[in-house]
Amino acid sequence: MSEAVPALSPEQMRCLLQTMYRIRAFEEKVDELFMRGEVHGTTHLSIGEEATAAAALQALRPDDYITSTHRGHGHCISKGADLKLMMAELLGKETGYCRGRGGSMHIADVASGNLGANGVVGGGIPIATGVGLSIKMQGLDRVCLCFFGDGAANEGTFHESLNLAAIWDLPVIFLCENNQYGMSMSVRKATRCETIAQRAVAYGIPGERVDGNDVFAVYEAVSRAAARARSGQGPTLIEAVTYRYKGHSKSDQNRYRTRDEIRAWQERDPIKRLAAYLRDHGLSTQEEIEREEAAAYQAIEEAYQFALASPEPDPDSLLEGVYA
Amino acid sequence: MSGPSSFPTTITTGAPQPSSEAAQSQVQEMTYAEAIREALREEMRRDPRVFLMGEDIGIYGGAFGVTYGLIDEFGEERVRDTPISEAVLAGSAIGAALTGMRPVAEFQFSDFMAIGMDQIVNQGAKLRFMFGGKAQVPVVFRAPLGSGTGAAAQHSQSLEAWFAHVPGLKVVLPSTPADAKGLLLSAIRDPNPVIFLEHKLLYRYKGLVPRGEWTIPIGQAEVKRHGKDLTIIALSIMVPRALAVAERLAEEGVEAEVVDPRTLRPLDEETLITSARKTGRVLIVHEAVLTGGFGGEIAARIASSEAFYYLDAPILRLGGAETPIPYNRTLERRATPQEEDIYQAARRLLQRRPL
Question: Could you tell me the pLDDT band of residue B18, with boundaries at 50, 70 and 90?
């Protein structure tokens, strides 16, 4: 964890811990439901990456926008989504955020500023740029946080979007969750660059690399970027270095990495680290932490029960929502 | 035979027919390009959410001069020159539309929409549906299409069928100045993504255009010329060509009906079927390559309707040759239907005997 005294209040830290437990509990449940065939299609889990999502959203305001990725459950929960409506969406139910039309890869809640997960790698980056343009043209005091992965950093949309946001000083925070692999391809093989953050130089904007498993570091970097964006100074590129414990998706046999590597990253588990910090600094007792963890699993169970009891979409409603 | 150098420059068919002198003063003769510019100007004056973005659309006025002068009235904020970055042009227009703006994005050539295709097809067209109907993407993508300018294979295609294949998009191809204005106003006000395709040879065609508020509903075909002997369903530049052919046929005693779908998605099936049923002979003409062209869809809709029982001959389709558009002038003309081709096809169709 960062050595400096964090800018977060103890209450905010406990809130972060709660969010991270909820993300993990949600995704473990999804994993289980997938194994049992209750969730179909595919699913991309962010277990191990919770700190980046939770801390980044903690640094923003409720009316700020986000665009998310195929690995987006954590972003959605951190943005304040209702777990019941999320779980209902994954079960394809009418009560889900997208009435069961979107599923894991397309959860959105436009009304709350969550402009959606995205099934196309790099697909959300131009959209976030346009949201920044919209904010600027409407004179709003908001920012758009654009999540994407190390894989997306090699898509053309990344380059086009960072350049456009830079020349127009758009209030966008480009947050790269570098979890080391684009599916199976190591980031070390996918680019000659030492870091993703250094690419910011090419667009004339600030770039910063932080430990993505350190909630304080992520919070501070995103806070700085948000302040820049709100004051009209334009976009920032942040690279949060993190790791996913689970495979890319359900088809992943983990052939491209070792158990030792996964274990090494689990030693730096973001949830354990924040829990230890709270305990070591006398901000929470072990009992309180365990209660928080149990409450998260309980909340997910309730969300699951809600989803189970929810109705399926009416087949005759198939064409609804294609056009406004 | 008419070609790039000999096209009529004045086409008034399809313009409104004012019934009184007062109404007469409400129309003005202008080119197709001017009509588009007027629609953009009027809508930008009316709605502060509307803005333009695209390559060289500011001081330069766009590759075909359509947006010329708009930057003087609306400034750089609302007439935004973008870098040569079609993916983010498309995507940022979608993002702005999703959050309260009404962008009109111009692609310099419709061929370059291929570069922004992921954003148009995988994002813009689907966001509303994927989000359970809880979002709107009111964006217009304008682009010139078509051959006849010697611009060769990467600047001359007619790709409207690609877009018409995607639920969530609307696809509009106006053929007259009045239609261009009326449909563009509707497109900008539409809460869905609209692909607005302008034939580059039509830009200098003139016609009467109503001043001020003048909208044409998206999804409404128009019978551009009434006739009883055969129906020519024509898209975009093929509409004036079909009308010229109809005049020639009229001199020979044949009354051709010319129908312009104007919108491919949603398609005004009823007007097409009604005409087919009336004349019993249908020729479909478009510049796009025949295989997979939208004419196949139109033919299928007619053949699947009750109009089938009224057909006196098989439906005939005329489209672009199965080739990229060549540079050479003669080859270029050969690659797409010209007036003479339409005339010959109409004659062939008229010779077919009823079963």
Answer: very low
Is the CB of residue B87 less than 8 Å away from at least one CB of chain A?
yes
CATH superfamily of B21-210: Thiamin diphosphate (ThDP)-binding fold, Pyr/PP domains (3.40.50.970)
For residue A301, give how far its alpha carbon lies from the nearest alpha carbon of chain B (Å): 24
Distance between CA atoms of residues A125 and A60, nearest Å: 18
With contact defined as beta carbons under 8 Å apart, do B101 and B80 qualify? no
Q: Indicate yes or no: CB of B92 within 8 angstroms of CB of A167.
A: no
Section B24-52 average pLDDT: 95
Q: Of B100, B189, B124, which is closest to residue A136 (Cα–Cα)?
A: B100
Q: Which helix (H) or strand (E) holds B340?
A: helix B339-351
Q: Does B98 touch chain A (CB under 8 A)?
A: yes
What confidence tens digit (pLDDT) does each residue in A35-44 have? Answer: 999 999 988 9
Distance CA A163, CA B160 (A): 30
The pLDDT, as a whole number, for residue B355 is 58
Active site residue B226: no
Of B90, B98, B136, the CB nearest to A115: B98
| Segments making up each domain of chain A, as ranges | 26-308
The domains of chain B are located at 21-210, 222-351
What is the total residue count of chain A? 324
Q: Is B90 on the interface with A (CB under 8 A)?
A: yes
Q: How far apart are CA A100 and CA A12, in angstroms?
A: 33
pTM, two decimal places: 0.95
Residue of A nearest to B130 (CA): A102
Give the model's pLDDT for residue B24: 55
Query: Could you tell me if B226 and B330 are in contact, meaning their C-beta atoms sit under 8 angstroms apart?
Result: no
Helical pair A124-137 and A156-167, crossing angle rounded to 10 deg: 10
In this chain, the answer to whether the domains covering B21-210 and B222-351 adopt an identical fold is yes
- Structural contact between residues B286 and B158, judged by C-beta atoms closer than 8 angstroms: yes
Mean pLDDT, residues A219-245:
98
Asked if the C-beta of B186 comes within 8 angstroms of chain A's C-beta atoms, the answer is: no
> For residues B131 and B343, what is the distance between their CA atoms, to the nearest angstrom?
49
Beta-carbon separation of A130 and B100 below 8 A: no
Specify the DSSP element, H or E, that contains B285: strand B282-289
% of chain B beyond a pLDDT of 70: 92
What's the pLDDT tens digit per position in B203-216?
999 999 999 999 99
Contact at CB, B131 and A110, closer than 8 angstroms:
yes
CA nearest neighbour of B34 among B69, B57, B70, B66: B66
Count CB-CB contacts under 10 A for residue A191: 16
**CATH T-level topology, domain B222-351:** Rossmann fold (3.40.50)
User: A interface mutation test: which of B86, B94, B98 has the most A CBs within 10 A?
Assistant: B98
Please report where in the chains the tokens 């009906």 appear, as a residue: B257
Look up B155 and say whether it is catalytic.
yes
Q: Which residues on adjacent β-strands are paired with residue A186? A: A181
Q: Does the distance separating the beta carbons of A161 and B88 come in below 8 Å?
A: yes
Find chain A residues with C-beta within 8 A of B75's C-beta. Answer: none
Please give the CATH topology (third level) of the domain spanning A26-308.
Rossmann fold (3.40.50)
Separation in Å, CA A297 to CA A24, A46, A244, A281, A293:
9, 17, 20, 25, 7
User: Is the dihedral angle over the CA atoms B138, B142, B145, B151 positive or is it negative?
Assistant: negative
Q: Do the Cβ atoms of A324 and B192 come within 8 Å?
A: yes
Asked if B167's CB is within 8 angstroms of A135's CB, the reply is no
